[in-house]
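chain below, 554 aa
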Amino acid sequence: MVIPAATGGPQTGAAATAADPTGSGLELSGGVTKAEVGAPSKLTAHVGVGDADVDARLPVPGSPATSPPATCGPGDRPETGLQGDVPLADQLSGRAAEGYSCGLQVVGYDPLGGRASNANMAWAGHCAYVAGEGIAVIDVSDPTSPRQVSTLTTAGSIDAFESITALEYGGRALLAAGRYGLFVDLQLASNVPVDIYDVSDCAHPRLLSTFEFPSSVHNLTFSPDLTRLWSTLPLQAADVADPTRPVYLGNLEAELRNGGVFHLEYAHEVAVSPEGSRLYIGGQVPVDEGSMTVDVTGWPARPATVVSAYAGPGHGISRATIGGRSYLVRSEESVAFNALATGCLPELLTPVAGPAHAFLTDITDEAHPVDAGAMQLEINRPEHCIDQLLSGVNASSHYHDVDDPADTTFVMVSTWNAGLRLWDVRDPAAPREVAYLNPGLFASTLFNTSTTPLDAALNFSGARTGLDQAWGHVRYVKDTGQIWMSTRLGGFWVLELEPQLRAALDLPALPGHAPLPGSPRPPASRALVPPSVLPAGLYCTIGSTRALGTLPLR
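prediction:
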């Protein structure tokens, strides 16, 4: 989807230098000149819009704060409002610029050059790969000091955004990245480039081949044995047993449709069973939302067979094993105007409106899947519609991952403006949030009449910018108890489960690194502001284009 660029840029005004919830005056960016805190849920402000100084007292209401999880530690900075919210009062006072944390501490950070386009993430060995305007290659051999060592800009990598995956198997390690699109290639070309890199030496990727899928590429997933590469929107595959000479295998959607199984959307993302014989897929078109388990044994020589079809979306989809039973973690997304991506509207409207969250489905009897518990934030509930409209927060689930697909304790959900959320799923009927890390606000442009093109493309709001977004896949390193994540504005983060969280999850104690001092926001992140010139690879979760050239901000 191409989003028209908004003109204008950040206005003058000093950024807040410290949070002051006790009531002292602050100078804030975005035209807010003075603020006074009267109570935890109320704030009044004197604002300047453009060149006009408007004398106005602005009451900022808010619902009572959600009690923080018992797993928060003494050095954490818990949320001040509803679970998952970044309250408007915090955005005005400067508190949101400190970030929010519970049970997780930052031990390493790289801003990735301050680019504002970080999207999905893959990993291999001691390296992470963050897609955006090119793929940032990050060496995490020292987790306290991760560093970007290069950027991949080959044909499939320059505009990958969500279309990236990596896997290690049998002494091999491969990274795949493709030009990102939605059903049709947004550059209006008939063939879509996909790069395959050898990342055995993970900090120095070596290009093995660039091949073409005949149709759009949206998400990419390797089979567990690294012999196949699946792509979605539409669902197609290539044989990559010899990654220097990939061979296109066919379009599975066309086969399913010709066999009488019709959907408007078959798969946004693919999960593959450990032996590679099952695909778990799901679409999320509001009038045609459904998921399927498909037997692909011997495909394409042997026709694929639908094992089960069941209601519910599969924007994100991953495997889990809880108490010896097999589960899928599935999620929705909501990508429209932030005013629509709320509990004000019904969930059935996702992905164009309504709240979005992740949930568990028991597939132990794969022919008869059964939904279990949901992972829903307070801010997304209908009774908090007004709170969400005030803050402008989109707390949509996006991608998610588990600590161990063979023995799952917790699920990590990237939740846009609500950051990364951790859910204890040992009782799959009642998932319980136990930790979170939300970088918060990077630049306040509240009350501005303009915004950056990238924010307009991502948020579809054009009104509330600067809230960071967690929306990529996330890695848990079991041996160290660390989590790797990327955020759109913030960059790359290494987090660590705090000791009290590990104890609450019945995980063995591990030696930890000293956390970075102060708030969850390292000093290097506090200096970041949206760049004055953004590349034109504007993208949202459903499309990308570079056809407009470079878009200067005025």
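The CA atoms of residues 68 and 78 lie 6 Å apart. The longest strand covers residues 32-39.
thats it, cya
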